[in-house]
Amino acid sequence: MESKVAYDNELNLIKATELRLGLPGTDDREEQALFSARNNKRPLPDTSKECGSKKNSDARHVDNETAPPAKAQIVGWPPIRSYRKNNLQPKKSDQAEAAGIYLKVSMDGAPYLRKIDLGIYKGYPELLKALESMFKFTIGEYSEREGYKGSEYAPTYEDKDGDWMLVGDVPWDMFMSSCKRLRIMKGSEARGLGCGV
Amino acid sequence: MDPERKKVVERVAVSTFPDEVLERVLVQLKSHKDRSSVSLVCHSWYDAERFSRTHVFIANCYSVTPEIVSRRFPNIRSVSLKGKPRFSDFNLVPPNWGANIRSWLVMFAAKYPFLEELRLKRMTVTDESLEFLALSFPNFKALSLFSCDGFSTDGLAAIATHCKNLAELDIQENDLNDKSGSWLSCFPENFSSLEVLNFANLSNDVNFEALERLVSRCKSLKVLKVNRNITLEQLPRLLIRAPLLTELGTGSFLQEHPACQYSELENAFNKCMNLNTLSGLSEVTALSLPALYPACANLTFMNLSCAALQSGEFAKLLVHCPCLRRLWVLDTVEDKGLEAVGSNCPLLEELRVFPTDPFDEDTFHGVTESGFIAVSYGCRRLSYVLYFCRQMTNAAVATIVQNCPDFTHFRLCIMNPWQPDYQTNEPMDEAFCAVVKSCTKLQRLAVSGLLTDLTFEYIGKYAKNLETLSVAFAGSSDWGMQCVLGGCPKLRKLEIRDCPFGNAALLSGLDKYESMRSLWMSDCKVTMNGCRVLAKEMPRLNVEVIKVDGSNESQADKVYVYRSVAGPRRDAPPFVLTL
């Protein structure tokens, strides 16, 4: 008998000092009910924006509510105007200088330059494909040893130090942060770059 | 003097005061509140006032008809109109709700052919309306469209083409169909009257040479706010042609070639002696920011809400802006940046901190209560704040309003709904108690966080100057709303969403709504029957219910109640039920 009482006491003690979410006085069941009742208010995650605000359920009292909200988007909340959402800049990367990746692209023989946003490409293949379609030419096959083989053109870029480098030699991230402008070289100049010196 | 003779003398004195003289005097009166008071004195003052009024401000386009306005005020040259309820900015009002400018324009063309200025907020404006406007008013000088919808850049082209005396074109934050930037090229080559040009929120390229020429020949240009497509290389070319600029909104502030045009930029900013307002600066970096410093000495308003600055570069910038009174920033500056505000901007009166990632609840970036506290210690004159954050404590707010008791506008948005004081886990009631107790001049309040009816008890008890209250995800029962309606004598606008306020609360304000501009309640517990009762008891109120697809028959999903002398709307779309 005694041991049971002692055991119960111990249990109560444990319960009293137990760390958990919720205000003192609420127990788990109440919390669950509140949480699920409150969830009635929120749209389901995959039907977030379209279905509009949910109507209220009566079984809900927010006083002793501390459960974290579901990760669904409520219509019109937070109250930010839509033009502001559209105008917000993308999150800056750690280097201040890496921000803003609009670059000029010139092609030997072309009458005017183009501009591209490096940020929208995930890697070299995408970038090269975009350049190919923009200027209507083909870039050859890249190899570390021989540069771009199989075409008259070679994509090059001017890096932070002012040097002209062959596109593709360095990892993509490094390229993104050091590239200042692009130039598609043609003919002998291009071939000169490709031969590993 | 015997009483009879005195009466005669007095009567004669009033009636021999010529109306023309009174009108001359009243023309000086600009404030529409003052004018309202004047018009109530007596009949002759009412008449003198109405003939002398040249600007009319209609805060709710459905509260009155164009006919009534034109009958009362025959000499109007300038009109400001507001349409949709404010929550339409947050997509809570379905499209095609109304507030179309068309019927007003038709009246203006007939009764105010010399109309000069039109300022619209939350109205629906079509391209046809803009063209009609451009062709109907030969003296037209100023068009300002703020948060409007329904038009495209074609409409702007019509304005540019036909308004020969245009001095102001201010297109801000509208939901427009941005087809192209060619509208700017529609200003005729001999057109030179522009003083204000704001196209910062348009996204298409304008022809830069056309813009350059336009700026060049508009010698009185004082306000120029360009869009993000104007580059940093192009900016100096505009600045040197606009020496009188007092307000500048730059385009992109991204430097592509560090060396060359930096000096040109610095020179250009060196010459900007008169700037008091600066905005834009999209894509700004630490490299390009210093070019601005020479122009910052006299800045009183800086809007950096499109510039994702980090705390370091922001702090360096602030050192150069000692005269700032109004500052808008993104929360990328974080608490450290706000500490710099506290240290460098003793004259600050208004601070707005906008969130960069409002929908990302996991983000640990942004500002906290510490930043706000830091500002309050350094900027004792703070009277207007809009603050978006993810955590707040009651103690912090108490400290803040103790430091800054002069708040007239206190808008706190704790972005996660129902969020309690993160340190004590208590509701945020005491925070707003402190606000309304300390800030006796409070006119506008927006509450957030976990709030019980207690908050509203405090508001009703202490916020005696409160005019506008915005409530979301708050309160425990009808009692909360009843306290506000019963306690705030100057309340004009009450907007509520997702709160447990029902019919009893709605009907407790029966006697109050006619003294208010409007009430908005969405996703609360009001029913159609409750609204019907309100409509029946108060025939001079328009009680409108917006029904949402798929909702319960008896629920009044969105309720909009406003006083009106125009009677029920005749242009209501099918989803708006006027009771």
TrEMBL record, chain A:
Keywords on record: Auxin signaling pathway, Nucleus, Repressor, Transcription, Transcription regulation
Biological source species: Juglans regia
Cell compartment(s), UniProt: Nucleus
Claim: Cytoplasm is one of the keywords in the record: no
Listed Pfam families: AUX_IAA
Name of the protein described by the UniProt record: Auxin-responsive protein
Domain (PB1) ranges: 100-187
Classification via InterPro entries: AUX/IAA_dom (IPR033389), AUX_IAA (IPR003311), PB1-like (IPR053793)
Region of interest (Disordered), ranges: 30-67
Biased composition (Basic and acidic residues): 43-64
Function comment: Aux/IAA proteins are short-lived transcriptional factors that function as repressors of early auxin response genes at low auxin concentrations. Repression is thought to result from the interaction with auxin response factors (ARFs), proteins that bind to the auxin-responsive promoter element (AuxRE). Formation of heterodimers with ARF proteins may alter their ability to modulate early auxin response genes expression.
UniProtKB/TrEMBL annotation, chain B:
Keyword RNA-binding: no
Pathway: Protein modification; protein ubiquitination
Keywords carried by this UniProt record: Auxin signaling pathway, Developmental protein, Nucleus, Ubl conjugation pathway
InterPro entries recorded: COI1_F-box, F-box-like_dom_sf, F-box_dom, Leu-rich_rpt_Cys-con_subtyp, LRR_dom_sf, Transp_inhibit
Pfam families assigned to the protein according to its UniProt record, in alphabetical order: F-box_5, Transp_inhibit
The protein's name: F-box domain-containing protein
Domain F-box, first and last residues per copy: 17-58
MF terms (GO), sorted A to Z: auxin binding
Gene Ontology biological process terms from the UniProt entry: auxin-activated signaling pathway; pollen maturation
Record localization: Nucleus
GO cellular component assignments: nucleus
